[in-house]
Amino acid sequence: MSRRILTFEDAKKAVYGGCILGGGGGGWIEEGLQKAEAAFMMGSPELLSIEELEDKDYVACVSLVGAPSVKEAYIDSKQLTETVKQMQREFDKPIKALMTNENGASTTVNGWLQAAATGLPFLDTPCNGRAHPTGSMGSMNLSEVEGYTSIQTFAGGKGGKKVKGSITASLGLSSSAVRSVSVQAGGMVGVCRNPIDIGYVKRNAAVGGITQAMELGGVFLSIPEGPERIEAVTSYLKGRVIHSGKVSHFELKETGGFDVGTVVIDDLELTFWNEYMTVEMHGERKGTFPDLIMTFDAETGKPLVSAEIKEGIEIAVISVSKENLKLSSTMFNEKLLKTVEPIIQKKII
Q1: What is the tens place of the pLDDT at every residue in 274-309?
Q2: Which residue intervals define the domain S-Me-THD N-terminal in the entry (predicted)?
């Protein structure tokens, strides 16, 4: 499959598979399905294999920046599309396709609407095949490219919080600025950013990551509602169920545009920074980001992001080794991974 027109059934699979690969972040299922519906109201996006483009062709990444728990967050279809059109005006070479920054319930279908609205194809290569907390982790190690200038166009919010614009700066500075804008805009903005050539993308992104999300979602949806769904996706990903039980403690703090907290089930403790970062049983480490750690409703099998957890609910926790995921080169960059440690007060490296 080098290129094909996507269907709403593909989108549904992408949302559920993306939610699991989100590892606690990457947006909510309901949000992803709404985004997919909005995309198909614009037209039919086309999924494009990276082999269809020349190494010298340029693509741009679309993403959402903000905290999934914030209720004031607002972005509409026009704002999302405008970020791409603004990028086409700002960048001096043609943008041949759009790509998403990561897999997640909402983020796997990031860009389907913009692709349908602009006629640009959507690349079967997310920057990262799982979800991650920081903008730099979704930037394919461009933070290591000396002198790279990041262009980021953004839009979001409504009423007095409505904002749109662009910033051209170093990657770290531009990402921090957009994160700050997302807080001011009510919690989230849509972004089009970091145009880069396909040769670089091939070396640093998660080639085939959208197809993996759709295949995983297909496995999940093919099983009737129940705990068997958890077993099926764990088997597909070559992972394991670590523990099932009732949540005895849940803490979430919204800090600087991120959700940070802990989940405790019996003798198991999870930490998260949007995504789950560590899982420990009896104090023994059972999974460490970028390993995939994910929670599910133990009865229905529905994947649950970190912001959905509540005390008293029965959940199952799975872990999948990073070797079984499609990951960006950023997931092996110790400098980027080190930024997690002071946030969750745990060792990652």
Answers
A1: 999 999 999 999 999 999 999 999 999 999 999 999
A2: 10-147
